[in-house]
């Protein structure tokens, strides 16, 4: 009887192993080196290695990473069911590569000023690899972010069809837009909640502005633009005292630090009752920052597509380095410099960085 029970148990174990093996079986890619859970992902290994070495300078979190991440958003947000319903005209295809395919049209939209540079840098990589423009834009953004300490490991999908017509103008929010219009635009594009809008703005932790004040290109939005950390959410809530350049530019308000730019839209979202508490919640919560951005990015990157019809190739995204900074107030500033906006939760107590008053260096050009 004991033998029979043991045999039955072993049969169950063997069956479970067969099922598990079927779930985890991998295909050998044509290069004979890599394996993948889906053969459609095999071509991406060469793309990843090429852009890491030749677009992202050997795997750095630099200017081309910042701009590639920006491009993922500017392409994907170009979709408006409202425009389609109210005018009967094409409302955009979302993450369909239209911003690069119709570069001569979409890069002339005011909100897209400057994205032509990264489009032109990416173009040779698309030309020499078997990948759609739509897939490449989102793939490059996710791979680039993996170079940044503290970043989440983003999801990647392939199988998008390339655009056959450009997205309409006015689908990309501007830094001088009101909070009402920004929230409405995101809701129209993909049903994004105010919390998801704040999560998408985590991208500004490694971002910089080139065209808000053309006299100081490469001006970052926080004091650690090489780190995917929470400093952006801290420093947007500090009292603004100066302009880093000429001042008086549309879409810019005073910043708390020399060498740092504050967008009007970021300032207002950090202080609006609908978003202030969510904004503050990221201040000293690196884990939430990572998980919230990962989820919001995933939703954005498939706008205009049915995710179930795409292939998940997230396994190709490298594990980002761990964060090398912790939440702090910049040197020379204190908790008294915080403009408390969340009505329900006090601003967290943070240490102040040691040393002289912080001066932020611009992001060097690639």
Description:
The structure is a single chain. With 366 residues, this protein is mostly helical. It has two domains: 35-171 and 297-316, Peroxidase, domain 1 (Orthogonal Bundle), CATH 1.10.520.10; 179-286 and 324-337, Peroxidase, domain 2 (Orthogonal Bundle), CATH 1.10.420. The chain is 39% helix and 4% strand. It has 14 helices and eight strands. It has a two-stranded antiparallel sheet with strand order 1-2. Helix 3 (63-76) packs across helix 8 (133-145) and helix 10 (194-200) crosses helix 14 (286-301). The longest helix has 23 residues, at 2-24. The radius of gyration is 23 Å and the shape is globular.
Number of helices: 14
Tertiary shape? globular
Average pLDDT confidence is 92
Would you tell me which CATH topology of the largest domain applies? Peroxidase, domain 1
Structural class: mainly alpha
Numbering strands along the chain, what is their spatial order in the largest sheet? 1-2
Oligomer: single chain
Topology readout:
Elements lengths: L1 H23 L2 E2 L6 E2 L6 H12 L8 H14 L4 H7 L10 H4 L1 H4 L8 H13 L5 H13 L11 E2 L20 H12 L3 H7 L7 E2 L9 E2 L10 H5 L16 E2 L8 E2 H8 L4 H6 L4 H16 L9 E2 L54
Antiparallel strand pairs: 1-2, 3-8, 4-5, 6-7
């Amino acid at each position: 009887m004991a033998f029979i029970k043991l045999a039955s148990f072993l049969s169950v174990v063997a069956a479970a192993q067969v099922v598990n093996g079927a779930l985890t079986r991998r295909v050998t890619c044509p290069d004979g080196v890599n394996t993948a859970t889906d053969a459609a992902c095999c071509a991406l290994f060469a793309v990843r290695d090429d852009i890491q070495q030749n677009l992202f300078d050997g795997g750095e979190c630099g200017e081309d990473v910042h701009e590639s991440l920006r491009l993922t958003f500017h392409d994907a947000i170009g979709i408006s069911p409202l425009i389609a319903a109210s005018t009967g005209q094409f409302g955009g295809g979302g993450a369909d590569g239209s911003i690069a395919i119709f570069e001569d049209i979409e890069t002339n939209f005011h909100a897209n000023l400057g994205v032509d540079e990264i489009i032109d840098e990416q173009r040779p990589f698309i030309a020499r690899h078997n990948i759609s423009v739509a897939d490449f834009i989102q793939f490059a953004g996710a791979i680039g972010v993996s170079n940044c300490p503290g970043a989440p490991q983003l999801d990647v999908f392939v199988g998008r069809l390339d655009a056959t017509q450009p997205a309409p103008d006015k689908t990309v929010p501007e830094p001088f837009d009101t909070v009402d219009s920004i929230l409405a635009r995101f809701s129209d594009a993909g049903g994004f909640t105010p919390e998801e809008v704040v999560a998408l703005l985590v991208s500004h932790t490694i971002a910089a502005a080139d065209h808000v004040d053309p006299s100081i290109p490469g001006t970052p939005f926080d004091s650690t633009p090489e780190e995917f950390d929470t400093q952006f959410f801290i420093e947007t809530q500090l009292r603004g005292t100066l302009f880093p350049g000429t001042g008086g530019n549309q879409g810019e308000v005073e910043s708390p630090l020399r060498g740092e730019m504050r967008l009007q839209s970021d300032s207002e979202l950090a202080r609006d009752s609908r978003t202030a508490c969510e904004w503050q919640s990221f201040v000293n919560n690196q884990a939430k920052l990572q998980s919230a951005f990962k989820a919001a990015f995933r939703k954005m990157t498939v706008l205009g597509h049915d995710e179930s019809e795409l292939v998940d190739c997230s396994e190709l995204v490298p594990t980002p380095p761990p964060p090398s900074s912790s939440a702090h107030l910049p040197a020379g500033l204190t908790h008294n410099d915080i403009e408390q906006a969340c009505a329900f939760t006090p601003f967290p107590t943070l240490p102040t960085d040691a040393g002289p008053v912080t001066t932020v260096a611009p992001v060097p050009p690639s």
